[in-house]
Amino acid sequence: LSKEGSVIVVNEPIVVDGGVFDGKGATYTASSKLGDGGQSETQSPLFILKNGATLKNVDLGENGADGIHVYGGATLENVNWQNVGEDALTVKSAGDVTIIGGSAKGATDKIFQINADTRFYLKDFVADGFTTLVRTNGGKQIDADVTIDGGAFSHGSNVFRTDSSLASVTFLSDITLDDVKNWTRVGDNQSGV
Ligand code: DGU
Ligand code: CA
Ligand code: CA
Ligand code: CA
């Protein structure tokens, strides 16, 4: 049964430790206990995914707080951020992250924040309004192997940004860009589209 149209207020992070969490189209929005969805770095996530968990058919609502934190890898399918908070998803400890479909709007700064070693695969994602779509943690050496396979990205500055000599990005298939300045920014080196 679809839960489209139902709105769930999240007061403390929902932990998915392995297994599948299917939101069935429901919208999850943070209460002020988690944060205000602005740029404060002290906010909490709505979801904590661990050890290969799968999150699917979930919308994150008007208050995105610190989005989703991933420990030890996870898969996301059809996860949509209606209004990204401080960021949308953070890789917090090493592991593979696969994101299939889904979308994000209204990011002030970053959408995907990579703070640990990962193979990060982003397939057919749609993002509108961001500074950086995928960012390895500023000033840090992180072994991130990023693949962006298809998708459509609009109104942003960088598709991928890193300060790490261990990080790489591969662009596959047809990626549509509209009003995006750079494919990559490595340190202060920008490569325009
Ligand atoms: O350097 O570590 O933006 O996970 C400062 C911090 C910062 C992180 C990151 C995040 O890079 O807070 O949201
Ligand atoms: Ca941040
Ligand atoms: Ca953050
Ligand atoms: Ca926002």
Which small compounds were modeled alongside the protein? D-galacturonic acid, calcium ion
Q: Cα distance, first to last residue?
A: 43 Å
Task: Give the strand order, joined by hyphens, for the main sheet.
Answer: 8-10-13-16-14-11
CATH C-level label: Mainly Beta
- Average per-residue pLDDT, rounded, comes to 98
Structural class: mainly beta
Number of strands: 18
Give the number of domains.
Answer: 1
CATH architecture type? 3 Solenoid
Query: Which runs of at least 5 residues are low in confidence (pLDDT < 50)?
Result: none
| Share in helix | under 10%
**CATH topology title:** Pectate Lyase C-like
Pick out its properties.
18 strands, binds D-galacturonic acid, 193 residues
Question: What does the secondary structure layout of this molecule look like, with pairings?
Answer:
Layout: E1 7-10, E2 14-17, E3 20-22, E4 27-30, E5 47-50, E6 53-60, E7 68-71, E8 74-81, E9 89-93, E10 97-100, E11 103-105, E12 110-114, E13 118-123, E14 126-128, E15 132-136, E16 144-162, E17 168-186, E18 189-192
Parallel strand pairs: 1-4, 2-5, 3-6, 4-6, 5-7, 6-8, 7-9, 8-10, 8-11, 9-12, 10-13, 11-14, 12-15, 13-16, 14-16, 15-16, 16-17
Antiparallel strand pairs: 17-18
The protein binds D-galacturonic acid and calcium ion (3 copies).
Residues 41, 86-87, 113 line the site of one calcium ion.
